[in-house]
Amino acid sequence: MDTLKESPSPCSSRHNSPRPAPCEMPATVGIEAVLDQLKIKAMKMGFEFNIMVVGQSGLGKSTMVNTLFKSKVWKSALPGPGVPTPQTLQLHSVSHVIEEKGLKLKLTVTDTPGFGDQINNDKCWEPILGYINEQYEQYLQEEILITRQRHIPDTRVHCCVYFVPPTGHCLRPLDIEFLQRLCQTVNVVPVIARADSLTIEEREAFRSRIQKDLKSHCIDVYPQKRFDEDPNDKILNSKIRERIPFAVVGADQEHVVNGRCVLGRKTNWGIIEVENMAHCEFPLLRDLLIRSHLQDLKDITHNIHYENYRVVRLNESHQLPRGPGWVNLAPVSLASTSAGQVTTSGPSKAHKRAQEEPKYEF
Amino acid sequence: MSKQQPAQFINPETPGYVGFANLPNQVHRKSVKKGFEFTLMVVGESGLGKSTLINSLFLTDLYPERIIPGAAEKIERTVQIEASTVEIEERGVKLRLTVVDTPGYGDAINCRDCFKTIISYIDEQFERYLHDESGLNRRHIIDNRVHCCFYFISPFGHGLKPLDVAFMKAIHNKVNIVPVIAKADTLTLKERERLKKRILDEIEEHNIKIYHLPDAESDEDEDFKEQTRLLKASIPFSVVGSNQLIEAKGKKVRGRLYPWGVVEVENPEHNDFLKLRTMLITHMQDLQEVTQDLHYENFRSERLKRGGRKVENEDMNKDQILLEKEAELRRMQEMIARMQAQMQMQMQAGDGDSGALGHHV
């Protein structure tokens, strides 16, 4: 503590208040300096963000990703004329490093071509669930090693954007099945895709019907109500929850409107501006994913979804093959936890479970 | 007109003129009196604007009290057939239009059995017509056969979906298919052209037979020929439907009001609605003819070849029939064995009553 008081704290020089007289104690301890240190560290390390886009083909997923990150993450939106749509669901990941004001973001986008396109779409969500769980598994393996890496590469999916086709009616059975299963494993943000086919009234009616469907099927999309920590969060998130799902339009071409250069779609009857709140809600989606809730998405993935997965896996651990550097985990009595069943509860319960097994040694 | 007929008939100044050139007028009057019947089927996933388009095409409200089912109901529902008939009259000409809707198509997670209901409906109508035609009283045969099927293709895909291909292949020999790109206001002009070309390529690739407009006769006027040429070049039509009146450029038009502009339904630069309507109206007669001469005749010859036995299930093959016959035989044998056992028991039980019990069997 002495060192803190002696060294000139950088923040006090930023204050507009006059320097205190040398014999007086400075008014602040200088803890604020931590923020700057964190910032510098973050700038050096960079951030990682993994996003997955799910939806039927042609709903503008690739275009949306390009628009969100203002760069050509995917090379082209349409497959060529000779390329057939995939017969089964495939998962396709692309990583890019985007830089803004000295801050590096390693963005990984996972696309799911072939989702919901077949005649029989039964269990088409299983490859997706498998992929997400695989990423959790990889992280878990790294975490359990005796000598761990300093910074475990994080490939876990932080956010899954689900594209709902703009039928204007309600959610389809496929949407319901998918959302029910995935909301328990990953943060899901549903959006109304290609919203330029709905007028404003149709959009509002569609949105309220979707919200009703989500409620009646107990689907908890991001931002989840039960993870709100303090009243401020609650107010902010409630405002977002009222507008979910956002009606978005994606575009990666620029046009000139009133002398300004905007991203939009040009039609015979007008230009749809992507960043204009009166036209579509793309700015809300962008703010949610990037400007305000990016860290929150990562935190919830790490503290809740990953922890849930970890608890289930560690309970099953005595049945697993041993890998190199594997720690011998004592098998847990199955009576304390229902084997294989994970009830997604708040963070407190997950910690409680960890406390019940003090025999773990690492 | 009627006054001229007898005058021409007895006019001695035009020798060799019999007067049967007036036959078309007679036919015309008779058909105007009889009225026309047309059955149109609309097939497509929910939310593609089928009902709106039908209402816009015929300027009616065929679905006045429509409640859109919630997601929970959709999960349980299978494909249904809903036929609604409306009588439209215009300048003394009556049209009895039946629109067959297919709610539930493409909604389920597993759509393999989606089109069985639809195909059996189409076959049923053919069956009924065949039955009526072969009956004794053939005066008032009601023609409920499906003359035309509008198949709605989603504008959001990159072409035809596997379900689209499978369905069209299943019905292209039974009904005239007119593919329509729905909700066309979501596409820019370039995207529309690309999608149309893609769809046409895929239709050719899968050998799907859609309805082809007949070429204009060489004696028709140039305007009509040009119109037919334009129509043929725009297939599949990309349409927008609406019955709301919006104020645009000082006049009231039917359209959709967006924050970025107004899409006018009847503006040929915005979509192909007018072309679709023109095609339907000028070729209504041809659609009926093709249904009668091609699809119905195909059905009829197939049916009569089968020899009048109504096959319920098309997958029933010889093995299944054999198995069924064997099962029946076994059942008969069991029954006979039971009866024999009963008879034996009763004979042993009471010798005196054997006579009465014998009749019991």
UniProtKB/TrEMBL annotation, chain A:
Comp. bias regions, Basic and acidic residues: 353-362
Keywords: Cell cycle, Cell division, Cytoplasm, Cytoskeleton, GTP-binding, Nucleotide-binding
Biological function: Filament-forming cytoskeletal GTPase. May play a role in cytokinesis.
An annotated GO BP: cell division
Localization (cell): Cytoplasm, Cytoskeleton
Family from the record: Belongs to the TRAFAC class TrmE-Era-EngA-EngB-Septin-like GTPase superfamily. Septin GTPase family.
Subunit structure: Septins polymerize into heterooligomeric protein complexes that form filaments, and associate with cellular membranes, actin filaments, and microtubules. GTPase activity is required for filament formation. Interacts with SEPTIN2, SEPTIN6, SEPTIN7, SEPTIN11 and SEPTIN14. Interacts with RTKN and ARHGEF18.
Protein name: Septin
Residue stretches making up the Septin-type G domain: 45-316
Molecular-function GO terms, alphabetical: GTP binding
GO cellular component: cytoskeleton
Biased composition (Polar residues): 338-347
Record-linked CDD domains: CDC_Septin
Region of interest (Disordered), ranges: 1-24, 338-362
One matching Pfam family: Septin
Automatic annotation (TrEMBL), chain B:
Keyword flag Membrane: yes
Coiled-coil zones: 322-349
InterPro entries tied to this protein: G_SEPTIN_dom, P-loop_NTPase, Septin, Septin2
Main localisation: membrane
Pfam assignment, any one: Septin
Position of the signal peptide: none
One MF term in the entry's GO annotations: GTP binding
Subcellular location: Cell projection, Cilium membrane; Cleavage furrow; Cytoplasm, Cytoskeleton, Spindle; Midbody
GO cellular component: cell cortex; ciliary membrane; cleavage furrow; midbody; spindle
Domain of life: Eukaryota
Subunit structure and binding partners: Septins polymerize into heterooligomeric protein complexes that form filaments.
PANTHER family: SEPTIN
Described function: Filament-forming cytoskeletal GTPase.
Protein name per its UniProtKB record: Septin
Gene symbol of the encoding locus: Sept2
